[in-house]
Known about the structure:
Blueprint: H1 3-14, H2 27-40, E1 43-44, E2 50-51, E3 55-60, H3 62-67, H4 72-90, E4 92-93, E5 99-104, E6 113-118, E7 130-132, E8 138-140, E9 146-149, E10 156-157, E11 168-172, E12 177-181, E13 188-190, E14 193-194, E15 198-200, E16 206-209, E17 212-217
Parallel strand pairs: 2-4, 3-5, 9-10
Antiparallel strand pairs: 1-2, 3-6, 7-8, 7-17, 9-11, 11-12, 12-15, 13-14, 13-16, 16-17
Amino acid sequence: xxxxxxxxxxxxxxxxxxxxxxxxxxxxxxxxxxxxxxxxxxxxxxxxxxxxxxxxxxxxxxxxxxxxxxxxxxxxxxxxxxxxxxxxxxxxxxxxxxxxxxxxxxxxxxxxxxxxxxxxxxxxxxxxxxxxxxxxxxxxxxxxxxxxxxxxxxxxxxxxxxxxxxxxxxxxxxxxxxxxxxxxxxxxxxxxxxxxxxxxxxxxxxxxxxxxxxxxxxx
Length: 219
């Protein structure tokens, strides 16, 4: 990805929250620094994949930290999404879920900030994973199984009459997330093919539950 393309992406993703900020720092400055840390700290794992930090702590002056108070949650979410998109564009891999935290540092002056970037492995070593629903909502995957179905107590409840009450389950396996059908009426498909038993998931796979399509993202 070229620098100009990166700038446009960050503008689109994080500058929308700037209007509510009272900080001397523009959110795009934080986004640029995050992806620079990913570039500077990338390494190659035993599988030949380029892995980058996934855990970021942004140190801000007390004044700037307070200036972001009203938009802190949405800013963190947009920075996480920017990091995910950049990793996908560059072919980078995360060892666990992406996390961004904002912390106050009394030793910093207003307008100055620092970033502590760390490679943090997910429990069980399966890496990061999430489900992207048709609404755009992202459901993070961890070490506990995620259930999909019509019942409201499912982790991912779907209002789809073609979906069974308890339709499928996604859980961490040996080095990857796997999906298994729970005896649903209409079955579970991955990339248009009905699964039979347990199916390993790869980044970008499209899961079909009834008439609902969900994208699996590994980064």
